Amino acid sequence: MTNDKNLFRKQALDHLSSPEQLDLLIHIIKPQDWLHLSVLCTLFSLIIIWMFLGRIPISVSGKGVLIYPRQIVDIQSPISGQIKQLNVKVGDCLKKNNSNEIEQPEEIIAFINPIDLKQQLQQEKTKLEILQQQDIEATNLELQKNQLEKLALQQQRESLQQRLRDNQIISPILKNQTNSAIQQRQVSLQQNLQDTEALVPVFRERLEKRKELFTKGAISKDGVLESDQQYRQNLQNISNIKAQLKQLDVDITATEKQYIDNVNNLSEIQVKLQEITTKEKTLKQQNLTDVINRKNQILQNKQEIDTLTQKIKNNSTIKSPHTGCILELTTTNGQVVNTGTSIGSLEIKAAASEKLVGVTYFSVGDGKKIKPGMEIQITPTSVKREQFGGIVGKVISVSPFPVTKQGAVNVLGNTELVESIVTKSQEPQIEVWAELKPNFTNFSNYEWSSSTGPTNLKLSSGTTTKVNIILEQRQPITFILPFLREWSGIN
């Protein structure tokens, strides 16, 4: 220990043990370091202020195309057939076909072989041959049938007419002869009745006399019986004659009835003759109707043939429904198409008053955040956004549901374009339409966000674009608060 103390000078040890410098400040930061600290505090304050007062734009991006609104239409084949020759190529412009005017070459999109119509035409021609042959056969059969039916009706008429004549002639004669015979018979019977009645007193008197003689015994009983028998026989004859006279009255009634029946029979015969006449007229009318029906079928068939022939003539070409230019062709020569099959798309020539609009496709997650009225920046893909910015526009509509591929094709009119913009993303897309802000002092005639735009760019329908939409401006602090709440557990 003594050796350790000898290592230091006595003055040094005394100086260290002296309390004379205990009240002096210790220098922790050098004066030149205050400047750095002030700068850091200022930056930190600015960051705090920026976090509350600053704004960070939240945007979404998508791909789209500039088009004239609702001016792209799908060209569909009006009939089924085989494409013989395409008369146009992509980019060719056509005139609208007017059905009342002569067909012009600049109206024709393609020449088509209407196979179905030609098949229908051949079927109708075959049907016509069958109908004509059936008409000939039916006419011959009807002729034979009519001859037989007319012959049968003629025979019935002649038979009925003969009966009618016989009844008309014989009935009165028969009635007269029968009545005459009955009258003669009545006269004879009445005379016979008178004679027989005149014998009654004679036979009665004879019977009474013989009864007296028998009583006296002058004659036998047989004589009395004989007289009685004669008397009774005479009375019986009177009864028989009266009965015959009554029968003659019945015969007269029967004769009258027979005559009336004959007269009625004449009426029946006349009715049957009228029925035969009616049958002849009906047969003639039926034959005429059958002939007319067959002729009408043949006529209708010929009209159908004429119609199909005209259809084939009119439908041998596919004509442009509008004035415009071909955007896409989806068929080739020799391809068979059905009615309604798309063969391409046509951009209708826009009127001078029409303006380009932007059609953009966003993912469903981004598209659902977009509202009409939001500002939009549309940059053609051939333009550098960093240099020129984008064309200023405003959202005018947002599709409520994701669009289908066919729906996008109907809008854009080009399948390949739809494939590159919509289908390539492999997720549903929301369609957004936007109008462009005009500025006719710029070369492009539109307002740009950070410049006057390119001086060599003329915008046209079909220009592909990259689009950016600012959804909102958020305070930076709002990005940190969720993490602070999660870290601190404060709601």
TrEMBL record:
Keywords: Coiled coil, Membrane, Transmembrane, Transmembrane helix. The chain crosses the membrane at residues 34-53. It comes from the Bacteria. Residues 131-163, 238-286 form a coiled coil. InterPro entries: MFP, NHPM_bacteriocin_SS_HylD. The keyword Membrane applies. The keyword Zinc-finger does not apply. Signal peptide: none annotated. PANTHER family: EXPORTED PROTEIN, MEMBRANE FUSION SUBUNIT OF EMRAB-TOLC MULTIDRUG EFFLUX PUMP. This is NHPM bacteriocin system secretion protein. It comes from Anabaena cylindrica (strain ATCC 27899 / PCC 7122).
